[in-house]
UniProtKB/TrEMBL annotation:
PROSITE patterns: G_TR_2. Coiled coil: none annotated. The keyword Nucleotide-binding applies. Keywords: Cytoplasm, Elongation factor, GTP-binding, Nucleotide-binding, Protein biosynthesis. It is found in: Cytoplasm. InterPro entries: Beta-barrel_SelB, EF-Tu_GTPase, EFTu-like_2, Elong_fac_SelB-wing-hlx_typ-2, P-loop_NTPase, SelB_WHD4, Small_GTP-bd, T_Tr_GTP-bd_dom. Transmembrane segments: none annotated. This is Selenocysteine-specific elongation factor. It comes from Neobacillus notoginsengisoli.
């Protein structure tokens, strides 16, 4: 069985015994700072190994409980799999405990255990009353069905039982996704003498190994993982759910800050506009107004921004999810499904929290239409998310699809096997339906062109693509044309594309006049007038003359001598045949004049036309037949 890794958090009110309980469970004092020792409160996140066997490894985060350190508390719970809510028996649930409970709910923490500490301070007959009071306070929260454990950290009563319960609970739980790209939100940065810069955090997803090339986002700095440690022990690899310290090269400590994210790929999106679904706390003290400044806590980042509603201008109480948008002052790295907390900067209070629907939000109109679109985005299953991404972008490569859909590579690859998705050019994906839509659009454009210019071979391919390249990528348009040609829907005539069943023809209303023109040209044999004279005599207007001349040339009915004189195709062919019969492998101008009886006015253009067609080649004063 593959080993699994989890991180649990200790949360609760200040001075309810979280750090003491962590020390009793792990034999590690997580209060590291001098100031923490003096004030007997946790300011920074404290970490310790709790349990490890061949199946599972569990770490503990001691989350600060003081209101001033709410940011660290949010950063701590952002990466945990189970929460032990610590409530002192002699005080019960306090206001800050309730705020922590709301934050845990918004962050999607589902697994919890309630640890009632300092039980030795309460008379035994009051224990059940204490439990009832705490249970009543937890109704409607993620902890309302959580198991209760009575512990005392000083006497170690209940400590082993609590530890066993934690291990048992997590052995039945799936670990975080270790298949996707590596992501570690940074919550600590420091230097080690002789080693350089070290970052620390909980591996949110994926895995990392020594020597791997990484990026610090959203800054985009390239770094390399020189060494890894998991709980102060060297490790060749760190997995999702583990606390890891990574010694990185290529960047100074001053260039990194808490809130930055260490990643292994560019699949993640850096954005300032997020489409989100939020819930608000039950007892907001103030209205949340349209475009009001808010403070976003996501991962370990804390960013200012504004909240934008599309179906209201303010809210005070709302029990369901609200679909809206966050427009941030700074970029954050995120993906669909990431959880976050929103706080009011002044006066400070938790507004609510939620999850990212789309990290690449657009600007939308106010109204129900936008809400309906966001509802569709919110509900999307993997296939629907891929379809929506391709419907919007028309064509995306695999890496872009990972970014747009927030799916891991294995899930995405599996979904893309569906015949509704099409891989073309060896790297780009689109929808089969998209190709059909483009082909139908092209068909209609070509048919309209044929109706308007029936004498032309077709529409220049480059021109056809140009008429549509504002709506679709050029590569996709090119692929669609080639597919339609190979399947016999379209035909290719040199640089021109046409509907396959189309045959160039003179418009019915001009057919008779065109036939008269050609017949008269044929009657005149080798002694032709200017072509314009024939058009004029046939009553063909200048607006049609150019297209008709091109059509007659392309269909071989007329052959140009120069820009103004043309022979009927049959007359030209007969003249060539006569020349072949009465000359050897080569001939001179005089020979040709004698055979055809032409003046120099016609003779020189005729011979140059033979050269142009590749029938002859001029060598000094002679012409040599090329196909004898």
């Amino acid at each position: 069985m593959e080993k699994r890794f989890f991180t649990i958090g200790m949360a609760g009110h200040i001075d309810h015994g979280k750090t003491s309980l962590t020390r009793a469970l792990t034999n590690v004092d997580t209060d590291r700072l001098k100031e923490e020792k003096e004030r007997q409160i946790s300011i920074e996140l404290g970490f310790a190994p709790l349990y490890e066997d061949k199946e599972i490894q569990i770490s503990v985060i001691d989350v600060p409980g003081h209101e001033r350190f709410i940011r660290q508390m949010i950063a701590g719970v952002a990466g945990i799999d189970l929460v032990v809510l610590v409530v002192a028996a002699d005080e019960g649930v306090m206001p800050q405990t309730r705020e922590h409970l709301e934050i845990l709910g918004f962050l999607g923490i589902k697994n919890g255990i309630v640890a009632i500490t300092k039980m030795d301070r309460v008379e035994e007959e009051f224990i059940e009353l204490v439990k009832e009071d705490i249970l009543e306070e937890l109704m409607g929260t993620v902890f309302e069905n959580a198991p209760f454990m009575l512990v005392d950290s000083l006497s170690n009563k209940g400590i082993d039982e609590l530890k066993d319960l934690i291990v048992t609970t997590l052995k039945d739980q799936e670990m975080r996704d270790a298949r996707g790209a590596f992501r570690l939100p940074i919550d600590q940065v420091f230097t080690v003498k002789g080693q350089g810069t070290v970052v620390r955090g909980t591996v949110y997803e994926g895995a990392v190994e020594e020597g791997q090339s990484l990026k610090i986002m959203p800054k985009g700095q390239d770094v390399r993982a020189r060494q890894l440690q998991v709980h102060h022990n060297p490790a060749p690899k760190a997995y999702a759910g583990q606390r890891a310290a990574i010694n990185i090269s290529g960047v100074a400590k001053e260039e990194i800050e808490r809130g930055d994210v260490l990643v292994s790929s560019e699949h993640f999106i850096v954005s300032k506009t997020l489409d989100v679904a939020i819930r608000v706390v039950e007892d907001l003290d103030y209205l949340v107004k349209q475009r009001m400044p808010v403070k976003l806590h996501i991962g370990t980042a804390e960013v200012m921004g504004r909240i934008v509603f599309f179906d209201r201008n303010e809210l005070k109480e709302e029990s369901g999810e609200i679909l809206c948008q966050l427009r941030l002052e700074e970029e954050v790295l995120t993906k669909r499904g990431d959880r976050f907390i929103l706080r009011r900067p002044s006066p400070q209070e938790t507004i609510g929290g939620g999850w990212v629907i789309d990290p690449r939000g657009n600007k939308y109109r106010f109204g129900n239409e936008t809400i309906e679109e966001l509802e569709k985005k919110k509900a999307g299953k993997p296939k629907e998310r891929i379809t929506a991404a391709l419907a919007e972008a028309k064509s995306l490569d695999f890496n872009e699809l990972i970014k747009r859909t927030s799916l891991d590579s294995e899930t995405l690859a599996s979904e893309l096997e569906d015949p509704e998705f099409l891989l073309y050019n060896g790297k780009e994906y689109t929808l089969q339906s998209m190709v059909h839509v483009i082909e139908e659009d092209m068909y209609d454009r070509l048919q309209d062109f044929h109706n308007q210019y029936s004498m032309k071979q077709g529409l220049n391919k480059a021109e056809l693509l140009q008429t549509m390249n504002k709506s679709f990528p050029k590569g996709l348009l090119d692929y669609t044309v080639e597919q339609a040609i190979s399947q016999g829907t379209f035909a290719s005539r040199g640089q021109y594309v046409s509907v396959a069943k189309f045959t160039p023809h003179v418009p019915k209303s001009w057919q008779k006049r065109a036939e008269n023109l050609v017949e008269e040209l044929k009657r005149d044999g080798l002694q032709v007038r200017y072509l314009a004279d024939y058009f004029s005599k046939a009553g063909i207007p200048d607006s049609l003359a150019g297209d008709l001349q091109r059509f007659l040339e392309e269909t071989g009915q007329i052959v140009p001598l120069d820009g103004q004189h043309f022979y009927h195709g049959d007359v030209f062919a007969a003249a060539v045949q006569s020349m072949r019969k009465r000359t050897g492998s080569e001939f001179e101008v005089g020979d040709a004049k004698e055979i055809l009886g032409l003046s120099r006015k016609y003779m020189i253009p005729f011979l140059e036309r033979l050269d142009a067609k590749g029938l002859t080649k001029r060598i000094e004063n002679k012409r040599v037949w090329q196909d004898r």
